[in-house]
Design brief:
This protein has 492 residues and is α+β, with helices and mostly antiparallel strands. It contains 16 helices and 25 strands. The relative contact order is 0.12.
Length: 492
């Protein structure tokens, strides 16, 4: 039975084995920013490859996209981010630390960790929480907070070298809007027909007030998002389809079923654009074990395409328009409105409509953390503790390690030839330093599924030892059959 990992165990292993480092560590670090080391970048790339393979490569109804991080400011005006993408914060009068209001606990009350992304700030300010019983997480003071105020989550920068022609732009807080902005381009340049999806993996940025738990919530992160476009009326069917597909993806890659569950959003917590939303939650090792969002699957209706449709038509006077008037007009269903560039014409049924969108949105960094936590194990072997990561082979940073038993008798030369032969198929590692037992332990901790050892018998019968990470069983395999043997075991 796998040992329940603690977050400190994971952080320590990640630093020790080269998975994840604190960003700018030699200068004291930068809060909530992390660098992926030699093993970490391989793990993260493998998570992305597995997502892309499942979501794009193995399907006939999904295509890919890679959008720019910097986009026209109108994109964020139309999507609502420019006006509404903020958190309510309050400052402690005693220690001057700032906290998100929805993260503050009442004295003797349980903590809530729901996010207020896309909250209607005006309405929330009008009904702000009573701060008189809130506890400061930094100093413990009770009721010593300023009035709640909105804190914008989008990073801003200037585009252009000269003051006269510079423009304020934002780093994208999500990858989805680039997909919506390219909806027509994809339709015009491919042969896709609804229902179909557009997938993207990319960096997003949020100036979070509260970050937490290693790479779980950071200000710079990577998302894997799919916008699946379907005809209104079929959206509930596709919503159920993607719920099941995304849940099974984690199970297929080795996440234990008891550590995953669905949590449906209550009606009062749904985002303003959502008809329905469910989170795939994982039992992360925060405290005594804490269910936290791993991925969200939302029915975004036709909200986004409608917003951008109106944004295009109102380009000249958008910033001067009354927000309430715009919001009212978005509900209109006129035939003239449906002729806009982001509508879809169904050739077979001779009708035009604005597609509904089902959006599975996963955090690559959170997924990598969940796979690390779930794979972590400790066990006693001959009186010693063996630390290991039981990664699914598809995710393991190194698939095969190759060793000569000793550095003599021609063993290193044979091992090098085997290593050179295998590294064209999958990521391999060569090691000839130290006792072979210690080399095994290092690879166990890195999550390497198999170790190939060249020994004295190799020169006699052309066989090598293949050691299994999980069982530690060793099998003699002829070098002529080694490629086939490993490919079958790794299912690659």
């Amino acid at each position: 039975m796998a040992k329940l990992a603690k977050l400190d165990d994971i952080v320590s292993l990640c630093k020790r084995r080269g998975f994840i480092f604190q960003s700018s560590e030699i200068y004291g670090g930068l809060a909530s920013c992390y660098d992926y080391g030699p093993l970490g970048v391989e793990l993260k790339n493998n998570v992305k490859k597995a997502w892309w393979k499942s979501t794009v490569q193995m399907r006939d109804d999904v295509v890919g996209l890679d959008c720019s991080i910097l986009m026209h400011p109108m994109v964020w005006k139309a999507s609502g981010h420019a006006d509404k993408f903020a958190d309510l914060i309050a400052e402690c009068k005693k220690c001057n630390s700032r906290s998100r209001v929805d993260h503050l606990q009442d004295k003797d009350a349980e903590h809530s960790d729901e996010h207020t992304t896309h909250a209607d700030i005006d309405a929330e300010l009008a009904t702000a929480h009573d701060m008189s019983n809130k506890v400061c997480p930094a100093c413990g003071a009770v009721g010593q907070f300023t009035e709640p105020m909105p804190f914008k989550l989008m990073f801003e920068t200037q585009m252009g070298a000269n003051v006269d022609d510079s423009m304020l732009v934002q780093l994208r807080p999500e990858t989805a809007q680039g997909i919506f902005a390219n909806f027509k381009n994809v339709l015009d340049s491919t042969r896709v027909k609804i229902p179909f999806g557009i997938a993207q993996i990319g960096k997003s940025f949020r100036n979070e007030v509260t970050t937490k738990a290693f790479i779980f919530r950071t200000r710079e992160f990577e998302q894997a998002e799919l916008e699946f476009f379907c005809e209104p009326g079929t959206d509930e069917q596709w919503y159920q389809h993607w719920k099941e597909a995304r849940f099974n993806w984690y199970l297929d890659l080795g996440i234990k079923k008891e550590n995953l569950h669905f949590r449906d959003h209550d009606p009062d917590e749904l985002a303003h654009y959502a008809k329905a939303c469910v989170d795939v939650e994982y039992k992360f090792p925060f405290g005594q074990g804490d269910w936290q969002e791993l991925e969200g699957i939302a029915n975004r209706t036709d909200y986004d395409l409608r917003q951008h449709q109106r944004g295009i038509r109102s380009l000249n006077n958008w910033f001067e328009s009354d927000k309430d008037l715009i919001r009212t007009k978005l509900i209109e269903e006129s035939e003239d409105y449906l002729k806009g560039p982001l509508s879809y014409f169904d050739d077979q049924n001779k009708k035009r409509f604005i597609p509904y969108v089902i959006e599975p949105s996963a955090g690559i960094d959170r997924s990598a953390l969940a796979f690390l936590v779930d794979a972590y194990d400790e066990e006693e072997v001959r009186g010693e503790t063996r630390n290991l990561l039981r990664f699914h082979p598809a995710l393991a940073p190194v698939k095969v390690a190759v060793f000569p038993l000793v550095k003599k008798d021609g063993m290193p030369e044979i091992a090098r030839r085997i290593y050179d032969d295998l590294k064209g198929l999958f990521n391999c590692f060569y090691d000839e330093k130290g006792a072979v037992g210690r080399r095994y332990r290092r690879q166990d901790e890195a999550g390497t599924p198999f170790c190939v050892t060249v020994d004295g018998q190799t020169k006699e019968d052309n066989t090598v030892t293949v050691r299994d990470r999980d069982s530690m069983d060793q099998t003699r395999v002829n070098t002529t059959q080694l490629r086939t043997f490993l490919r079958e075991k790794l299912d690659l």
